[in-house]
Amino acid sequence: MKPTIVLVGRPNVGKSTLFNRLTKTRDAIVADIPGLTRDRHYGHGKVGSKPYLVVDTGGFEPVVKDGIMHEMAKQTLQAIDEADVILFMVDVRTGCTAQDKIIADRLRRCSCPVHLVVNKAEGMRREVVTAEFHELALGEPMAISASHGEGVTDLVEIALEHIPDATEEEETKHPRIALIGRPNAGKSTLVNSFLGEERVIAFDQPGTTRDSIHIDFERNGKPYTLIDTAGVRRRGKVFEAIEKFSVIKTLQAIDDCNVVILVLDAQADISDQDAHLAGFILDAGRALVVAVNKWDGMSDYQRDNIKREIGRKLQFLEFAKFHYISALKGTGLNPLLVSVDAAYAAAMAKLSTPQLTRILIDAVAAHQPPKTGPFRPKPRYAHQGGMNPPLIVVHGSALDKISDSYKRYLEKTFVQAFKLQGTPLKVQFNVGH
Ligand code: GDP
Ligand code: GDP
Fold first, then answer.
1. The complex's ipTM?
2. Residue-wise pLDDT tens digits, 20-52
3. Which positions bind GTP 1 (predicted)?
4. Is the beta carbon of 14 within 6 A of some atom in ligand 1?
5. Ligand 1 in contact with 17 (CB < 6 A)?
6. CB contact at 8 A, 356 and 392
7. Which pTM value belongs to this model?
């Protein structure tokens, strides 16, 4: 599992500037999806071969008692509890403030490593920068400039130095499913329905907080693994959501799985939280099946309404198959798993170069990329550059002049030609020559 770096500090010290720098290296697979809103406080990044998750806690107002600021403070405290490493940012231009001291007091009680980061230090001598921050008693301060990028790579390398490497998940050759959805959508009920009478083959007790639980089960003679999300844990004979909702755990589960089942509550409105979760799933490029749950006991009128709302608010999930199920009554589960199988197969599909090239050439013959200025881009051949999700690399000339909409046209064409249901697919242009 990727380690989680949490950025903490009072407003204006440069957290979001550092966040942007820490997350921009990753080429987002779905950078150009129209209508997708993102939660900009969570992102992925990589230094060298080390991937990580970053959380920007926004602000830290430990003294407020209620209202929106209180909510933010609660989120911050939860993120601090779930962090693998904390970067506590201060601002050399304002010096060490009273609020910095309050935050430092709180952070000194954390069980994970905390690094003190002095920002806005461009062009300044290190000793001068860090001197006054020693009094925060959080070890040797590190000087960086988030906006100029000075010291940032060193900082991340040091921060991740003592975090154990993500143990390579033994390559499962079957769907590893994360059930993602907001609280009360019916995730635990669905886990129990899946397991039902089926034999649970193995059950790992959670060890440390960094371990996720994997539940292996068989259905219709096929193996599946469920990954715990946000505290769906066994209590007695059944699984229940026993922890508060955690974005970090949700992101880790998305990362860890190869197929997501997004669980929506048909008896509630589609919320921003649903859209944000969908955004995380797309960002990760995961294969996806949508389960619209609690379909029992709804009138036709209500069903039409929720379908329309889903179509409007989650339009960008059109690549996924939608199922209308009742986790409680156990209806619709077999078709749901058929789609999980299909999405898994699509995500892992091996696409041959001759076939890809033929489809490309036909697509270009049917509809040429528009000329930009004197250039007419000429796609010539294609090969598969990766899977889960499938990445198709197109070669040719003047490909850097191809528009996003033409790229989407090619993506759609490949998806249809290979009948890839349930996985995003990315076309990338090789503009090297
Ligand atoms: P946040 O509120 O902690 O997320 O802070 P921001 O990232 O929004 O930054 C606050 C202000 O500080 C912005 O005007 C940034 O441009 C500026 N800033 C951030 N990093 C640096 C830096 O390394 N050097 C300087 N000079 N300014 C910075
Ligand atoms: P979680 O927080 O996502 O794990 O949600 P739970 O599985 O705990 O379910 C939340 C509530 O919704 C419980 O009261 C469930 O009994 C109820 N629920 C779950 N699935 C269904 C369903 O298919 N139909 C109906 N009517 N209620 C359901």
1. 0.87
2. 999 875 455 555 566 666 677 888 888 888 889
3. 9-16, 56-60, 119-122
4. yes
5. yes
6. yes
7. 0.84
